[in-house]
Design a protein that fits this description.
Phosphoribosyl-aminoimidazole Synthetase, Chain A, domain 2; about 725 residues; seven-stranded mixed β-sheet; alpha+beta
Length: about 725
């Protein structure tokens, strides 16, 4: 098959601007081959090069005594003591999931799991953060079903528990849903594997499944807006096989134990191209590949297709040559491909051969390091107008409206489709602020959470970015877990629009400030831009995934409220209704400023909860829906009533930050109030748990009725 001529239209179709193509010509000194054009397109697109975001990502805090490996590898690595580390990352699979929801979501799960076990860690937990359009939009139901089934279909078959996550609905996602996948694994600190190649003449080995034409150009597709040609992009979506991935993990971990691995890299975005270039660049070496040796499942695949395929369940490794026979035997045992497809070379070259022809010959370091980097113009968001008057509403009616909405009803219908108990170490599954997993063979627990409130970020990017980190911090602290570190998945619209870029910059500044103040460095992550359809962007959605450690299971706060427990509010009494759930769901208004985040107060109150875990029976942080929704959720989980003293709308539904609701008996409540006074922490007795009704002031309703609304609303809408 003859390669097409390199024309301006072909260059534009590959997502390269005129300036970027001129840069390409300057690097290689001639017109590129078709394969070379594809390679540059893959390496220089937004998804792989972070060309619009690198400047700002460098400002994030990424270090700390607990950090073994920060951003730049397949996943971040954090020390949890006793010679063990937790390895974790979050990544987006937004565009593929909108085009083909089942496979898009499934391969998002597969890709994030590979990022973890490529580092030498066995996955122990998964989460997801999902954003869909309005429940009334004609495509939303199909997307919800496809995405949830894809996540469950892949994760359940692979055998990793889904222990947490979040789901939201907003019309801004009508044309572009978000699927953010998180995975975490455990490894020994002295057995972490990295991607930097070393040694000249070392074999480059292809591992796993065969290469097909699925996903060709997927990374480039993920770096562009959607328009009326969206259906034409369906072939760029990858197809996953979780059973092959399970075998690949077992074979990879077994291979690592042989000492055969010099370096290893997942074949994710841009497939063979990105994995080979990253390994060579990090090791300061060149790479030569012979595509005749690449295992293919389709006939007559071209060099272009092989280099840009994003077929799943594949890895690339640099091998110790004396271990070849032993390594090959491992992969043959697991019925997976093992093929030597090239070698490391001393020259700064990325040399691609097929047949007797040179299909690409590019300076490797220039390809990796000379990718464009833009300082995009940005405009700070306007200061939000003050919130106008909010009409009074019966507080139980306000709660009932939240419980009946798609955004605040129970997600049980979703997470019951996920295996939450496989591996038998889940101590707390989905449905609360954070999930808990036992560190097998020890007394330790790891806590996992994912959070963001996009309407806050749109109103005030700095406060919204900080709030996402702060809420993740609170979710972990409410369980008694010490927050260790974070991963981010930064979902925004078109960065070429100064207003959108301003949202990104503001959010990054807020995230950075919060991560520094709360000692939660960013150790891994992903940026997903151009989440727009026909020029309409999503809400800015910088999702924060966070991991915390409980050093002994006895220190976990995992009890439930019961009759007679006192309800204590730690932190200020509520007053802030701007951008609140009540305002959005009851009054259909998204107005006012986001709540202010006092990072010193967040840290102090979180430390107080953790330091006094022995006095606390049950605890939740206050976020969306304020005190009213938090009190209902604690009561509903325990199937006991709750009576709050106040019926003030601001006190009940205000979304002021740095707050927790605690349930404990009277003696413990008294001790907590004394401790709070000594620590200079605000604490208030706001009511008690018990009975069979939910009562706010004089307004009440049967718990059973409200619980039925809470649990039935979501399946009634989507099942």
């Amino acid at each position: 098959m003859q390669d097409p001529a390199i024309t301006p239209d072909l260059i534009a179709a590959h997502g390269l601007s005129d300036e970027e193509y001129d840069r390409l010509l300057g690097i290689i000194g001639r017109e590129p081959t078709f394969t070379e054009l594809g390679i540059f397109s893959a390496m220089w697109n937004e998804h792989c090069s972070y060309k619009s975001s690198r400047k700002w990502l460098r400002t994030l805090p990424t270090d700390g005594p607990q950090v073994i490996c920060g951003p730049g590898e397949n996943a971040g690595v954090v020390d949890i003591g006793d010679g063990q580390a937790v390895v974790f990352k979050m990544e987006s699979h937004n565009h593929p999931s909108y085009i083909e929801p089942y496979q898009g979501a499934a391969t998002g799960v597969g890709g994030i799991l590979r990022d973890v076990f490529t580092m030498g860690a066995r996955p122990i937990a998964a989460m997801n953060s999902l954003s869909f359009g309005s429940p009334d939009h004609p495509k939303t139901r199909q997307l919800v079903h496809g995405v949830v089934e894809g996540i469950g279909g892949y994760g359940n078959c692979f055998g990793v528990p889904t222990v947490g996550g979040e789901v939201r609905f907003h019309t801004a996602y009508d044309g572009n849903c978000l699927v953010n996948a998180f995975a975490a694994g455990l490894a020994d600190t002295d057995k972490i594997f990295y991607s930097a190649a070393s040694g000249v003449g070392m074999p480059v080995v292809y591992l796993g499944a065969k290469t097909g034409r699925d996903g060709v150009g997927g990374a480039t597709m993920a770096s562009a807006e959607f328009d009326e040609t969206i259906e034409e992009k369906r072939p760029t979506v990858q197809v996953g096989d979780p059973f092959t991935e399970k075998r690949l993990m077992e074979a990879t971990l077994e291979l690592m134990a042989t000492g055969a691995v010099i370096s290893i890299q997942d074949m994710g975005a841009a497939g063979l191209t990105c994995s080979a270039v990253e390994m060579g660049d990090k090791g300061g070496l060149g790479v030569q590949l012979n595509l005749d040796e690449v295992p293919c499942r389709e006939q007559a695949m071209t060099a272009y297709e092989m280099m840009l395929s994003e077929s799943q369940e594949r890895m690339l490794m640099v091998l110790r040559p004396e271990k070849e026979a032993e390594a090959r035997a491992v992969f043959e045992k697991w019925d997976l491909d093992f093929a030597i497809v090239g070698e490391t070379i001393p020259e700064d070259r990325f040399l691609i051969m097929q047949g007797n022809s040179i299909k690409a010959d590019i300076p490797l370091k220039a390809l990796a390091e000379n990718a464009p980097e833009y300082d995009r113009p940005w405009e700070a968001a306007d200061t939000p107008e003050p919130l106008g008057e909010v009409p009074a509403i019966d507080p139980i009616d306000g709660l009932r409206a939240l419980l009946g909405s798609a955004n605040y009803s129970s997600r049980q219908w979703i997470y019951e489709q996920y295996d939450t108990q496989v591996m038998a170490d889940t101590a707390r599954g989905p449905g609360a602020g954070a999930g808990l997993v036992r560190v097998h063979g020890t007394d330790k627990l790891l806590a996992f959470t994912a959070d963001v409130t996009p309407r806050y970020v749109r109103a005030n990017p700095h406060e919204g970015g900080a709030q996402a980190v702060a809420e993740a911090y609170r979710n972990l602290s409410a369980l008694g877990a010490k927050p260790l570190a974070s991963t981010d998945c930064l979902n925004f619209g078109n960065p070429e629009k100064p207003g959108i870029m301003g949202q990104f910059v503001g959010a990054i500044k807020g995230i950075g400030a919060a991560c520094a103040a709360l000692d939660m460095p960013i150790v891994s992550g992903n940026v997903s831009l151009y989440n727009e359809t026909d020029g309409t962007g999503i809400l800015p959605t910088p999702t924060i995934g966070a991991v915390g450690l409980i050093d002994h299971a006895d220190h976990a706060i995992t009890g439930t409220a019961r009759d007679g427990h006192v309800a204590l509010l730690l932190g200020p009494v509520g007053s802030h209704l701007g951008q609140s759930a009540l305002l959005s769901e009851v009054f259909n208004r998204e107005e006012g400023d986001a709540p202010h985040v006092d990072l010193d107060l967040e840290r102090r109150n979180g430390e107080f909860i953790r330091d006094n875990h022995a006095l606390i029976r049950a605890c939740t942080d206050l976020g969306d829906g304020g005190l009213a929704l938090a009190a209902f959720e604690l009561a509903e989980a325990a199937q006991t009533g709750v009576h709050l003293d106040s019926d003030d709308m601001h006190a009940l539904f205000g979304e002021d930050q740095a707050r927790y609701l605690v349930a404990c008996n009277f003696d413990q409540a008294e001790a907590l109030m004394i401790a709070a006074g000594q620590a200079g922490v605000q604490i208030h007795s706001v009511g008690k748990f018990g009975g069979d009704t939910v009562r706010f002031g004089a307004s009440e309703a049967p718990l059973a009725e409200l619980s039925d609304t809470f649990r039935r609303s979501f399946p009634d809408a989507f099942a």
